[in-house]
Amino acid sequence: MSSVESPISLSSLRPSKGVPESRWTVAAVEALYELPFMDLLYRAQQTHRQHFNPNEVQLSTLLSIKTGGCAEDCGYCPQSAHFETGLKASKILPLDEVLDAARAAKAQGATRFCMGAAWRSPKERDMEQVTAMIEGVRGLGMETCMTLGMLDEQQAHQLKDAGLDYYNHNLDTSPDYYGSVITTRTYQDRLDTLQNVREAGINVCCGGIVGMGETRTQRAGLIAQLANLDPYPESVPINNLVAVPGTPLGDAEPIDPFEFVRTIAVARITMPTTMVRLSAGREQMDEALQALCFAAGANSIFYGDRLLTTSNPQAQRDRALFQRLGLHAQGERPAASVSVV
Questions:
Q1: What is d(CA 92, CA 103) in angstroms, rounded to the nearest whole number?
Q2: pLDDT in tens, 157-198
Q3: Nearest by Cα to 298 from 263, 327, 271, 264
Q4: What is the pTM for the complete model shown?
Q5: Active site amino acids
Q6: Measured distance CA(164)–CA(154) in Å, rounded
Q7: Measured between alpha carbons, how far is residue 100 from residues 61, 68, 106 in Å?
Q8: Is the CB of residue 175 less than 8 Å from the CB of residue 195?
Q9: How far, in Å, CA of 222 to CA of 307, rounded?
Q10: Cα 283 to chain center, whole Å?
Q11: Which residues on neighbouring strands pair with residue 64, listed in sequence order?
């Protein structure tokens, strides 16, 4: 056996005989988590290089177009009306302000502009405004993404007709842990929205949050749910909980950093062609940890000063880190490299 091979073959971690080849069991995903750390990163790198330029990262910018006052009780979210976090609710932003933010994001190198609203679901009076935002951002030559809460079939088709490229709706965690975090919306509600988005022909952006007190088995359960969506999401944001005072998870114990990197690697292996986004919580990560995440297969980040209501590393810091690691933004020409013989 080669010294770089793990004693456990990847094929042995796939579903057993009689289970469709495209499906991952929770046990199989958990077995990936339990690989020696270096073996897991090696496998993730192999998978990543089969499908992507390993030194290219897609940049997205996220703007909160309607902040606070949400009727949901998601235990991690400072925008919930159920919790006292000091965040004031605001009305939906005017179109001109959204487009100005999109232009600034494009000037900084972002290729995708994501817009989020703190709603349980959009009302009909909101749809005209959000479709105008989609059309305006697309007119700037950027990809568009929205996260507006739950969607019915008609709303999904309205967004598609406006030209929406991606819709974000996270599963957050595993089915068996979900009720410990959220009670106002069921897991099936989330799956139904994802189905409506998929049937409308919109790309799916769907991931979750780790560090909410879940077990490794429950983290594996989340990844299995995502990987078994048919097809799995085109974009998978992996969020590291930002514990906000005033929320039920405000005192949550931080997840072990290597466990977070393992989650990135497992997402890459189980969903080989998806964009794995290093998302919320990046402000709390040092540069070495972020570099490990890129090595594990993360190839997308949120880029800019803020991520909805929590801070995000500033663009200049990201660019400096990219330069040190030899990374470049998607669509940009990489700096000249020196070949090693």
A1: 19
A2: 999 999 999 999 999 999 999 999 888 889 999 999 999 999
A3: 264
A4: 0.86
A5: 70, 74, 77, 114, 145, 205, 277
A6: 14
A7: 13, 22, 10
A8: no
A9: 22
A10: 15
A11: 116
